[in-house]
Structure formats: structure tokens, C-alpha cells
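Sequence, please.
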């Protein structure tokens, strides 16, 4: 009976190890920035993408157990503290951050902060997901510019047609008026045929 209990515990432990390995692999093998913190803002999970981003952005290494806010500039520390306080109260937040790469190009990040709750719905921490949305922002900007160019072209075409219509109608009206006047005069049959 005791051997049975131990074997079921071993099976459960193996299953937990397998599940943990799968989750770790998923987290580690994405380009998205992923990390989580406990209620005291100490990092509990982080992937290489986040470590590399943090090192590039702040020139500081970061690892599990660190309070990441202590490594941020004061303004950002205050900003992230306010966001985290809201999330620890149960709010889900998605925000956008603009940073510059080493060449000075703008990079747009979409960052989602979500509360982590235990089985009793007690919030124990925060999960952070960051995604580079630069290509989407650039694409949306290009679409807006293309729409504006198309609207400008449509307006120019409409203005051109209105102007041309006026420019053509005015002389035609003059000619038609002259023909009407000409019809009221004495004309030969040949002349009347030309006028009509």
C-alpha cells in the first residue's frame, strides 16, 4: 500500500516536471518579452528575450529574485510602480511603449500586465508580456498616409472636373446662344441646314 502511494507521487512529480519543462520551453523560445513578479515585485520568471532587452535598454543585467524597478531610471520606476499597484488590485493593463534601438530607430512595444491569482483568487503577482509591434504601427501609418493621398487625389479630380466642366460649358453656352440668334435671321436653306 505504501509502495503504491509513493509510485503515484513519483508519477505526479514526473508529470509536473514534464509540464514545467514544456512551459519553460514555450516561454524561452519566443521573441516576446516575458517575465513575472511576485507581490513584492521580485522577478519569479523571465525569458532570454526580456533579459536581452533589459540589458540593451538599461545596460544592466537582471535575473530571478531581482526587484527590476530598482534598476530603472527614477521616472520609469515611478511609472511602473503605479501600473503594478493597479494590476495588484486586479486590473488588466495593456500599454504601448516607444523606445529607440542602438541606431536610433523607433521601436514600438505593446505591453500587457495581468494579475496572477492563486486558487482562492488572491493576487500573488503580475505577468508581463511585451511584443514588438513596430511593423504593425508602421503598416497602419502607411495605410493612413495612403488613404490621405487617395482622398487628396479624389478631391483634386473632383476640383479638376468641376473646373473643366465650367470651362467647357461657358463657351458651349455662348455658341448655342449664337446659333439661336443666327436661326432668327434670314438664312438660305443651305445656311439653315448648317445651323441645325
Amino acid at each position: 500500500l505504501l509502495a503504491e502511494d509513493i509510485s503515484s507521487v513519483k508519477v505526479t512529480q514526473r508529470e509536473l516536471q514534464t509540464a514545467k519543462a514544456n512551459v519553460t520551453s514555450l516561454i524561452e523560445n519566443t521573441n516576446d518579452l516575458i517575465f513575472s513578479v511576485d507581490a513584492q515585485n521580485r522577478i519569479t520568471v523571465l525569458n532570454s528575450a526580456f533579459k536581452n532587452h533589459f540589458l540593451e535598454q538599461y545596460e544592466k543585467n537582471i535575473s530571478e529574485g531581482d526587484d527590476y524597478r530598482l534598476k530603472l531610471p527614477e521616472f520609469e520606476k515611478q511609472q511602473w510602480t503605479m501600473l503594478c499597484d493597479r494590476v495588484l488590485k486586479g486590473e488588466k493593463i495593456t500599454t504601448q511603449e516607444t523606445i529607440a534601438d542602438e541606431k536610433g530607430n523607433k521601436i514600438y512595444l505593446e505591453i500587457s500586465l495581468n494579475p496572477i491569482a492563486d486558487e482562492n483568487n488572491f493576487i500573488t503577482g503580475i505577468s508581463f508580456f511585451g511584443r514588438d509591434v513596430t511593423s504593425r504601427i508602421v503598416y497602419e501609418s502607411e495605410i493612413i498616409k495612403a488613404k490621405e493621398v487617395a482622398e487628396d487625389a479624389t478631391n483634386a479630380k473632383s476640383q479638376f472636373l468641376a473646373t473643366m466642366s465650367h470651362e467647357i460649358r461657358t463657351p458651349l453656352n455662348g455658341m448655342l446662344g449664337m446659333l439661336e440668334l443666327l436661326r432668327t435671321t434670314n438664312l438660305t436653306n443651305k445656311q439653315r441646314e448648317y445651323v441645325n
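The radius of gyration is 36 Å.
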